[in-house]
Amino acid sequence: MLADANPLVLSAMSEIFDKDPRFSLVATSATAEGFLGTVMRVPVQVGIIDWNLPALGGAKLIEVLRDQANAPRLVVYADESSDVPRKAMSAGAAGFAPRSSAVDGLLDTCIAVAEGKMVFPFLDVRGLQTDPIEQLSRRERAMLEALSKGLTNKELSKELGISTNTVKFHLSNLYEKLSVKNRAQAIAFYYANRAAKGDFSLEE
Protein backbone atom coordinates (compact mmCIF):
# COMPACT_ATOMS: atom_id res chain seq x y z
CA MET A 1 0.00 0.00 0.00
CA LEU A 2 1.20 3.51 -0.85
CA ALA A 3 0.60 6.72 1.09
CA ASP A 4 1.70 10.17 -0.08
CA ALA A 5 0.07 13.58 0.15
CA ASN A 6 1.33 14.58 -3.30
CA PRO A 7 -1.19 13.27 -5.88
CA LEU A 8 1.42 13.31 -8.66
CA VAL A 9 3.86 11.22 -6.63
CA LEU A 10 1.09 8.85 -5.59
CA SER A 11 -0.07 8.43 -9.19
CA ALA A 12 3.46 7.86 -10.48
CA MET A 13 4.27 5.32 -7.77
CA SER A 14 0.97 3.52 -8.34
CA GLU A 15 1.78 3.12 -12.02
CA ILE A 16 5.30 1.85 -11.27
CA PHE A 17 4.12 -0.78 -8.79
CA ASP A 18 1.16 -1.79 -10.96
CA LYS A 19 3.49 -2.56 -13.85
CA ASP A 20 5.94 -4.60 -11.77
CA PRO A 21 4.82 -8.27 -11.61
CA ARG A 22 6.59 -8.73 -8.27
CA PHE A 23 4.03 -6.51 -6.55
CA SER A 24 0.29 -6.43 -6.03
CA LEU A 25 -0.92 -2.92 -5.18
CA VAL A 26 -3.65 -3.16 -2.55
CA ALA A 27 -4.56 0.50 -2.04
CA THR A 28 -3.33 4.10 -1.91
CA SER A 29 -4.00 6.95 0.48
CA ALA A 30 -3.18 10.65 0.77
CA THR A 31 -3.32 10.64 4.59
CA ALA A 32 -1.92 8.69 7.51
CA GLU A 33 -5.43 8.11 8.81
CA GLY A 34 -6.53 6.65 5.48
CA PHE A 35 -3.51 4.37 5.40
CA LEU A 36 -4.11 3.25 8.98
CA GLY A 37 -7.80 2.59 8.39
CA THR A 38 -7.07 0.40 5.36
CA VAL A 39 -4.22 -1.70 6.77
CA MET A 40 -6.24 -2.44 9.90
CA ARG A 41 -8.90 -4.06 7.70
CA VAL A 42 -7.01 -5.41 4.70
CA PRO A 43 -3.86 -7.59 4.77
CA VAL A 44 -0.89 -5.54 3.56
CA GLN A 45 2.66 -6.91 3.64
CA VAL A 46 4.63 -3.74 2.87
CA GLY A 47 3.61 -0.11 3.15
CA ILE A 48 5.43 2.83 1.57
CA ILE A 49 4.79 6.12 3.35
CA ASP A 50 5.84 9.74 3.08
CA TRP A 51 7.56 10.95 6.25
CA ASN A 52 5.45 14.14 6.31
CA LEU A 53 2.17 12.36 5.68
CA PRO A 54 -0.81 14.37 6.98
CA ALA A 55 -2.13 14.57 9.55
CA LEU A 56 -0.42 12.17 11.97
CA GLY A 57 2.96 12.23 10.26
CA GLY A 58 5.15 9.26 9.41
CA ALA A 59 6.73 8.85 12.85
CA LYS A 60 3.39 8.71 14.67
CA LEU A 61 1.91 6.36 12.06
CA ILE A 62 4.84 3.95 12.48
CA GLU A 63 4.49 4.17 16.25
CA VAL A 64 0.76 3.37 16.12
CA LEU A 65 1.30 0.35 13.87
CA ARG A 66 4.45 -0.87 15.61
CA ASP A 67 2.67 -2.98 18.20
CA GLN A 68 -0.23 -4.11 16.03
CA ALA A 69 -0.40 -7.78 15.08
CA ASN A 70 0.06 -8.42 11.35
CA ALA A 71 0.92 -4.78 10.67
CA PRO A 72 2.73 -4.10 7.39
CA ARG A 73 6.48 -3.55 7.36
CA LEU A 74 6.93 0.14 6.57
CA VAL A 75 9.32 1.80 4.12
CA VAL A 76 9.75 5.56 4.47
CA TYR A 77 10.08 7.24 1.06
CA ALA A 78 11.32 10.75 1.70
CA ASP A 79 14.04 13.37 1.30
CA GLU A 80 17.22 12.72 3.26
CA SER A 81 17.06 16.07 5.06
CA SER A 82 16.70 16.54 8.82
CA ASP A 83 18.20 13.16 9.64
CA VAL A 84 15.03 11.40 8.45
CA PRO A 85 16.69 7.97 7.92
CA ARG A 86 17.81 7.82 11.54
CA LYS A 87 14.45 9.09 12.79
CA ALA A 88 12.62 6.51 10.66
CA MET A 89 14.77 3.71 12.09
CA SER A 90 14.25 4.97 15.63
CA ALA A 91 10.48 5.07 15.10
CA GLY A 92 10.49 1.43 14.02
CA ALA A 93 10.37 1.57 10.21
CA ALA A 94 11.77 -1.42 8.32
CA GLY A 95 13.47 0.61 5.61
CA PHE A 96 14.20 3.99 4.05
CA ALA A 97 14.42 4.96 0.38
CA PRO A 98 15.44 8.49 -0.66
CA ARG A 99 13.31 10.30 -3.23
CA SER A 100 16.52 11.42 -4.94
CA SER A 101 17.49 7.86 -5.92
CA ALA A 102 16.37 5.90 -8.97
CA VAL A 103 12.98 4.22 -8.70
CA ASP A 104 14.69 0.81 -8.90
CA GLY A 105 16.18 1.58 -5.49
CA LEU A 106 12.71 1.92 -4.00
CA LEU A 107 11.56 -1.33 -5.63
CA ASP A 108 14.64 -3.21 -4.40
CA THR A 109 14.15 -1.79 -0.90
CA CYS A 110 10.54 -3.02 -0.84
CA ILE A 111 11.57 -6.51 -1.98
CA ALA A 112 14.26 -6.68 0.72
CA VAL A 113 11.84 -5.46 3.40
CA ALA A 114 9.24 -8.02 2.28
CA GLU A 115 11.91 -10.69 2.82
CA GLY A 116 12.33 -9.55 6.41
CA LYS A 117 15.43 -7.38 6.00
CA MET A 118 16.03 -3.94 7.49
CA VAL A 119 17.17 -1.53 4.78
CA PHE A 120 18.77 1.77 5.74
CA PRO A 121 21.49 2.29 3.10
CA PHE A 122 22.03 5.93 4.00
CA LEU A 123 22.11 5.56 7.77
CA ASP A 124 25.49 6.26 9.33
CA VAL A 125 25.91 5.05 12.91
CA ARG A 126 29.61 5.91 13.02
CA GLY A 127 28.78 9.24 14.63
CA LEU A 128 27.80 7.52 17.86
CA GLN A 129 30.14 8.36 20.73
CA THR A 130 30.93 4.69 21.26
CA ASP A 131 29.79 1.48 19.65
CA PRO A 132 27.10 0.12 22.02
CA ILE A 133 27.42 -3.34 20.47
CA GLU A 134 31.02 -3.47 21.69
CA GLN A 135 29.71 -2.94 25.23
CA LEU A 136 27.44 -5.98 25.11
CA SER A 137 28.27 -9.20 26.93
CA ARG A 138 29.01 -12.31 24.85
CA ARG A 139 25.52 -13.64 25.66
CA GLU A 140 23.88 -10.35 24.63
CA ARG A 141 25.80 -10.26 21.36
CA ALA A 142 24.75 -13.82 20.58
CA MET A 143 21.16 -12.87 21.36
CA LEU A 144 21.31 -9.81 19.11
CA GLU A 145 22.68 -11.89 16.22
CA ALA A 146 19.97 -14.50 16.76
CA LEU A 147 17.38 -11.72 17.03
CA SER A 148 18.50 -10.37 13.64
CA LYS A 149 17.40 -13.68 12.09
CA GLY A 150 13.82 -12.94 13.13
CA LEU A 151 13.64 -15.57 15.88
CA THR A 152 10.79 -15.46 18.40
CA ASN A 153 11.41 -15.56 22.16
CA LYS A 154 10.65 -19.29 22.15
CA GLU A 155 13.09 -19.86 19.28
CA LEU A 156 15.71 -17.71 21.01
CA SER A 157 15.27 -19.85 24.11
CA LYS A 158 15.94 -23.01 22.10
CA GLU A 159 18.80 -21.47 20.09
CA LEU A 160 20.65 -20.20 23.15
CA GLY A 161 19.73 -22.97 25.57
CA ILE A 162 18.09 -20.67 28.14
CA SER A 163 14.57 -20.23 29.49
CA THR A 164 12.11 -17.80 27.92
CA ASN A 165 12.18 -15.73 31.14
CA THR A 166 15.96 -15.44 30.82
CA VAL A 167 15.49 -14.43 27.18
CA LYS A 168 13.16 -11.62 28.28
CA PHE A 169 15.68 -10.52 30.91
CA HIS A 170 18.53 -10.37 28.40
CA LEU A 171 16.35 -8.60 25.83
CA SER A 172 15.45 -5.93 28.37
CA ASN A 173 19.14 -5.33 29.12
CA LEU A 174 19.93 -5.40 25.41
CA TYR A 175 17.33 -2.75 24.56
CA GLU A 176 18.58 -0.54 27.36
CA LYS A 177 22.22 -0.75 26.26
CA LEU A 178 21.32 -0.02 22.63
CA SER A 179 18.87 2.74 23.62
CA VAL A 180 16.07 1.13 21.62
CA LYS A 181 12.48 0.29 22.58
CA ASN A 182 11.76 -3.01 20.86
CA ARG A 183 13.17 -5.87 18.79
CA ALA A 184 12.49 -4.14 15.45
CA GLN A 185 14.66 -1.20 16.48
CA ALA A 186 17.34 -3.53 17.88
CA ILE A 187 17.48 -5.42 14.58
CA ALA A 188 17.61 -2.17 12.60
CA PHE A 189 20.46 -0.94 14.79
CA TYR A 190 22.32 -4.21 14.34
CA TYR A 191 22.17 -4.10 10.53
CA ALA A 192 22.91 -0.38 10.33
CA ASN A 193 25.92 -0.89 12.59
CA ARG A 194 27.27 -3.72 10.43
CA ALA A 195 26.75 -1.70 7.27
CA ALA A 196 28.63 1.28 8.72
CA LYS A 197 31.54 -1.03 9.46
CA GLY A 198 31.48 -2.39 5.93
CA ASP A 199 30.64 -5.94 7.02
CA PHE A 200 28.20 -6.20 4.12
CA SER A 201 26.02 -4.09 1.86
CA LEU A 202 22.38 -3.67 2.86
CA GLU A 203 21.53 -3.25 -0.80
CA GLU A 204 22.78 -6.66 -1.89
TrEMBL record:
Residue positions, PTM 4-aspartylphosphate: D50
InterPro entries, alphabetized: CheY-like_superfamily, Sig_transdc_resp-reg_C-effctor, Sig_transdc_resp-reg_receiver, Tscrpt_reg_LuxR_C, WalR-like, WH-like_DNA-bd_sf
Keywords for this protein: DNA-binding, Phosphoprotein, Transcription, Transcription regulation
Keyword Phosphoprotein on entry: yes
Domain spans labelled HTH luxR-type: 129-194
Pfam families: GerE, Response_reg
Annotated ranges, domain Response regulatory: 1-114
Stated name of the protein: Response regulator transcription factor
Organism lineage string: Bacteria, Pseudomonadati, Pseudomonadota, Alphaproteobacteria, Rhodobacterales
